[in-house]
Every structure is written in structure tokens, then in C-alpha cells.
Amino acid sequence: MSHQALPRPRFDAPEPERASKAALKMDAKATPLLQGKVSEIPDALFGWTMRLCGLAVVSLLVLIVYELIVRSQLSWHAFGWKFFAQSDWNPVEEQFGALPFIYGTVVSSLLSLVIAVPLAVGVAVFITEMCPAALRGILSFTTELLAAIPSVIYGLWAIFVLVPLLRTYVQPFLAQTLGWTGLFTGPPYGIGMLAAGVILAIMIIPIISSITREVLTVVPQHQREGVLALGATRWEMIRMGVLRNARAGIVGAVILGLGRALGETMAVTMVIGNRPEIAKSLFAPGYTMASVLANEFSEATSNMYLSALIEIGLALFLVTIIVNALARLMVWSVTRGLPARNIA
Amino acid sequence: MTINFTPIGWRRRVVDHFMTGVAVLTVVLVLLPLGAIFAYLIYKGAGSINWAFLTQTPKPVGEPGGGMANAIIGSMVILAIASLMGVPLGIGAGIYLSEYGRNRYGDVVRFVSDVLNGVPSIVIGIVAYGLVVLRQGHFSALAGGVALAIMMVPTIARTTEQMLLLVPQAIREAAYGLGIPRWRTTLSITLRTATSGVITGVMLAFARVAGETAPLLFTAFGNQYWNWKSDQPTAALSLQIFTYAISPFDEWHRQAWAGALVLIILIVGAVAAVRLAVKHGTLAGA
């Protein structure tokens, strides 16, 4: 779904502006053929209505920024930058610090990338480079299908299938083998940071793999043929001829996945445990910026409480925008045919 | 970079086969959860859907039975409001981008819609809360519709633009040559040629917002009873699934699965129905 939003290369874009002016001029010369004069008012009206629609898209963004900034002023003036450095979240005493939520968002997103990136890139490589043509369509359709499932259904599945699975099999195993790292200690609840990371990974795999696939198909065929002709095996060809050329685009795809993971709300809220604590162990419950909004926004009783939550929303908004803009630039650099070496 | 290949030795062969195996393994690992989700959805959901589920409102805690009829209708109402606002605006913006926006201003709009596409849905919920709920003084279906409409616009705008760009320039010029004004050409020739693509884009956007929960939490809010007013809190299927899934009651868990299956069926059904209408029905030939 997300690859729809990628810009196309612009060189083949038609130029209606020039063409139509030329056409109108021809109309003027050809008046004897036409009955009466063509009014220009409906044309202008239509053109400006469409421009208004374009303007509306821009004003939507302005409106979002305005709403978030204005409604978070109270908390911004009360706490300043300390808001993002304090870990005390106490609505009763109106003490608000967003650090545990920032920590939870960052850790759960990074964890999901660690799991999702190898899998997503592997799937993309398999579909573009190894897969028999007959399987290709079905496989890409099925991976895209993952992207069409609503977040709340992922969450439902995670609560009743993934979490018990983690609790009974995965967590005891991890604690036994990797417990010494300190990342996998404590009671295996099932619910917690690990569960959030895994369900996020499942949700962002389709995006990363569909954009990686797009980037891989842009790598020129003669690159592959050249490396093969030098006597490389297929894997060496993929490593040297394909992945190396596409790396900026793949990084872009990964960052797009990150952007999605940062803002993902429902599934994470349902399995992360929702406790504003910073714990080293991934078994421990956590809280993310998006899930504190989901849980507490409609129950926020005081103006300060609401304002603090909206400030978290503003921070989340800014971070995802920066991450997304970065990712788009990297994907463009590859799909628009710039040499990858200059960027990565 | 110098690449110096010796004749393919056993080690390189083994590595090659190993990596192929790894790639196949990743595919299996990715398809496994997908299969598991659908299997569970059908297994758990189909066993829980019955006539009462589709026709009754929720029963109080502890009482068995009841259903999600009000949530099903509520979702439809919210989506209808969202589509009424989002689809025309999105298509208009798409027309602007492809027919008028081949310049710097267009580039700005293009970039902004890509940015809007990446805004987390929960943040859109906050904005709709500020715009509608705070002004009206209460949660409402309208607020939920506004939130979803904001999410639909950028997707529709960009796909509409791409579909209109696929229409050959020669067709537009032929229309101009016949003396047809530009607005008429755009609507009756260009847009009409691209109809099926534009509708696919609209349905993609629709499917994407139909299952959204986060922006509805504090806009539509949910409701245990029937509500036919667009300015009152309204139940939505996705909200109901969320509430029931995190509840401690087995009966509600069962209904959450049923709700999830109904939600998926409704989304797929709506998309399929529109596709079919484009192919055979009233819109045929459009």
C-alpha cells in the first residue's frame, strides 16, 4: 500500500499547462468553425477549485501543526525541555515527564527493526532474485495482504496467540541462553517490551519488503549479468551486484518502516503492559508515546494533563515527520537513478 | 573495486546454497504469522458469529449473548461521513497535482501529502479532538469522520495524480482540438479514462481507514447503545474489538474475534462490491 505514495520519476510527466494554452490559441484562430465564443469563466472557476483542493492539503498540515502547538502550550511553559528528560508521570500531582514513553517507543521500534529487517530484506531478495516467476505474484500479493490487516486485529491475535507463545516457550528459552546479558531477565509475563517488538516487526515487514523489492528491481539487469559473467555464484551476484547498489534505498525502506513503528498504536498498547517504567530487561512491561495517548487521552481530567499528553503527540508528530522525510529522500535517490555511492 | 573470482570451489557453492536456504527460511517465517492470523480469525470468529451478534446491542457485563449491531452500523456511518468529506477533496487535490500542479507549488503539495501520509493516526485523532470535540463539547461520529477523512485525503490525492498522469497527453489535446473547454476535458475525458484506477486508489484509502482504531478512541468514543445522531458518541467495530479484547471476560473475547472477522469481511466486501460495480454495474464504461 505504501509504495503507492512514492513519487514517480518526473521526466515523463506531461505538460498540460503549455499544451492547453497552445490549444486555446488555436481555438481563437478557428472561431469560424465554432458556434459562438467559448466562455472562459467555467474554466477559471474549475481551475481555481482544484487549486483550492491542493491548498486544502497544505492547510491540513498547517492545521495539524497549529492545533498541536497551541494546545500543548500549557505544559510547554510549565516544564520546558525538562518534560523530555524527567521520568516522573504523576497526573494526580500534575508532574509530567515523558522520558519513559520516549524510551518505550525507541526501544520497541528498534527491537522491531532488529527482527524485521533481515526477514523483510530476505523476502525481497527471494522474490526479486530467486523466486520462480509463477510464485512471484502470489508471494508479493500475500506479503502485501499483511499490510491490509487492521492494527487492532494484530493486537487481538497478539494477546491470545503471540503472548502465550512467548510466555511458555520463547521467554524461558531466552532467559536460559541469553539471561547473562541482562536483557532477558525477570518473570516471563509474556506481555511486555518483547511482545510489542515482535508484533511491531510482523506489522512493518510488508512495508520494508515491498519498498526494498521496488528498489531491487531498479538495479539495472546488466549489473547482475556483469557480475555473473565474472564467474560469481548467484549469492555473490546478489551481494556484490544487487544489494551493494541498492543499499541507500534499502536503508530508506528500513527508515520508512521505523517511521511506521514509531507511530503504531493499537497493537502495541494491547501487549506492551502500559507501565511508565524504564527497565533494562525486555521482559518487563513498558509504555510508548502512542499508547499513553490511546489509554489516557479521553480520561485526562485537568487542562495540564491534557496539554502534557498533546505535547507528547507533538513530539511524536515531529519525530515521525523527520524520519519519514529522511527515508523518502533516500528511496528517491535510488529509484530516480542517482548513483548510490554518492549518498550512502 | 577489483573482483577476482577463482573457479567456483566447494566453499562458495556451499555458501550459495546456504544463502538460498536462508532466503527461503525468511519467506516461511514471514508467511507463518500471516497464515496463523487468518486461521485464528476464521477458526475463532466463525464459531462466534450468530444472528444475535449481528442484530443485538452489547449486553451488560456477565450476561451472555448480545452483539455488535450498533457498532457495525456505527462504523458504516463514520466511514460514510469520512468518505463524503475525504474522497472529493482527495480527488480534487489529485486533479490539481496532475493537471495544474506540474510546478513548484505542486511539488509542495506533493511533499506535504507524503508527509501527511506518515503522520501517526493517533496524532490525527488529537487534531480531530481539538477541531470538533472541543468545539462541540462532546464526542461524536462527526469527529471520528473528520479524523478518518484527514487520513484518506493524502492517499487519494497521490493515487489519483498517478492515475491521471497515465492518461496519454494526446487524448487531452484531441479534446482541446475539438474545442472542448479544459474543465470539461478534465472531468469527462481525463478523469473518465482513469476512473477504474482512481476508484482503486479510493478503495485502498477506504480499506486503510476502515480498520483504524486509534483516531476514533477520543473522537467517536464508542457507545453501548444505538445512536442515530451524528453529533453523539457512536460505537465503532474496531473500538468494540479493542474494548472486548483487553477485557477479562471470555464471552467478550469470543465476541472480539467475531467482530474482527466481521470487520475484515466488511472491508473486503466493500472493496469487492465497488470493484464489481466498476466492472459491470452502473459505472461500467466509465
How would you describe what is shown here?
The complex is a heterodimer of chains A (about 350) and B (about 290). Chain A is mainly α. Chain A folds into two domains: about 55 residues, no CATH class; about 260 residues, MetI-like fold, CATH 1.10.3720. Chain A has a two-stranded antiparallel sheet. In chain A, helix 3 crosses helix 12, helix 7 packs across helix 9 and helix 8 runs antiparallel to helix 9. The radius of gyration of chain A is 26 Å and the shape is flat. In chain A, about 50% of the residues are buried. The N terminus and C terminus of chain A are likely disordered. By secondary structure, chain B is an all-alpha fold. Chain B has a domain of about 170 residues: MetI-like (MetI-like fold, Orthogonal Bundle), CATH 1.10.3720. Chain B contains eleven helices and no strands. In chain B, helix 9 packs antiparallel against helix 11. Chain B is globular and about 70 Å long. The termini of chain B are far apart. The mean pLDDT of chain B is about 90.
